[in-house]
């Protein structure tokens, strides 16, 4: 594939990601994607094989969880592993707001594409569960129910996505990425009784 073809494919993916986040998958047409990308309408079928395949390709290209296998050293230690997951999920959701919004839309509405989304997000949460389980076995985390601990970690990590109409309660209109990640992580590790967390 030439550089020009690669550039056009990426323009289509960026355009689709933007429009899916703004209008939803069902509310976005192939023609709108191509108009946004400045592409011939036939190129979606030519490069991807249709709108559904574009949706999948967006996750293949932009979802950071596919990089988990490169972090084995962190996952050898439960506190480091869980910390990495929490930080990266928060960073991702605050930096790539479009893809984060798409994930939220598809999962909340339980659309036919939720299975695709889950195929990318589930391994990340499965690793968080493994870190919690391993941490308790090693005496690093203290909790009664693994399921409830995982739900707590998921809820705290994604809390900034759920604020919605309560955003006026926050002192900052836009959350700072690193500050939000570190404060959330501190809260989670303290609740789990992790070593080094304040009493």
Walk me through the structure.
The protein is an all-alpha fold and 199 residues long. It has two domains: 3-60, Homeodomain-like (Arc Repressor Mutant, subunit A), CATH 1.10.10; 71-192, Tetracycline Repressor, domain 2 (Orthogonal Bundle). It is built from ten helices and no strands. It has helices at residues 3-23, 30-37, 43-47, 51-62, 72-75, 78-95, 97-109, 114-137, 146-158, 177-191. Helix 6 runs antiparallel to helix 10 (177-191). It is elongated. The relative contact order is 0.11. Residues 29-48 bind DNA. This is TetR family transcriptional regulator. InterPro entries: DNA-bd_HTH_TetR-type_CS, Homeodomain-like_sf, HTH-type_TetR-like_transc_reg, HTH_TetR, Tet_transcr_reg_TetR-rel_C_sf. It comes from Paenibacillus tyrfis. Residues 6-66 form the HTH tetR-type domain.
Keywords:
Arc Repressor Mutant, subunit A; Tetracycline Repressor, domain 2; 2 domains; mainly alpha; 199 residues
* Number of E strands: 0
Quaternary form: single chain
Low-confidence region ranges: none
Structural class category = mainly alpha
Total count of domains? 2
What is the CATH fold-level name of the largest domain? Tetracycline Repressor, domain 2
| Rg over CA atoms | 19 Å
Can I get a quick summary?
The protein folds into two domains: 3-60, Arc Repressor Mutant, subunit A; 71-192, Tetracycline Repressor, domain 2 (Orthogonal Bundle), CATH 1.10.357. It has ten helices and no strands. It has helices at residues 3-23, 30-37, 43-47, 51-62, 72-75, 78-95, 97-109, 114-137, 146-158, 177-191.
């Amino acid at each position: 594939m030439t550089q020009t073809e690669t550039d056009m494919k990426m323009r289509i993916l960026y355009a689709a990601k933007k429009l899916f986040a703004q209008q939803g998958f069902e509310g976005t047409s192939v023609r709108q994607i191509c108009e946004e990308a400045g592409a011939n309408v036939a190129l979606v079928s030519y490069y991807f094989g249709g709108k559904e395949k574009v949706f999948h390709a967006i996750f293949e290209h932009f979802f950071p969880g596919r990089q988990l296998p490169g972090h084995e050293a962190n996952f050898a230690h439960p506190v480091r592993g869980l910390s990495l997951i929490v930080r990266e999920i928060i960073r991702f959701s605050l930096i790539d707001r479009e893809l984060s919004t798409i994930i939220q839309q598809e999962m909340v509405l339980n659309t036919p594409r939720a299975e695709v989304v889950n195929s990318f997000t589930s391994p990340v949460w499965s690793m968080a569960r493994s870190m919690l389980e391993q941490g308790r076995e090693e005496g690093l985390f203290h909790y009664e129910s693994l399921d409830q601990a995982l739900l707590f970690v998921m809820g705290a990590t994604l809390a900034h996505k759920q604020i919605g109409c309560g955003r006026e309660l926050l002192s900052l209109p836009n959350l700072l990425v690193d500050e939000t990640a570190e404060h959330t992580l501190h809260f989670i590790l303290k609740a789990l009784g992790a070593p080094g967390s304040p009493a």
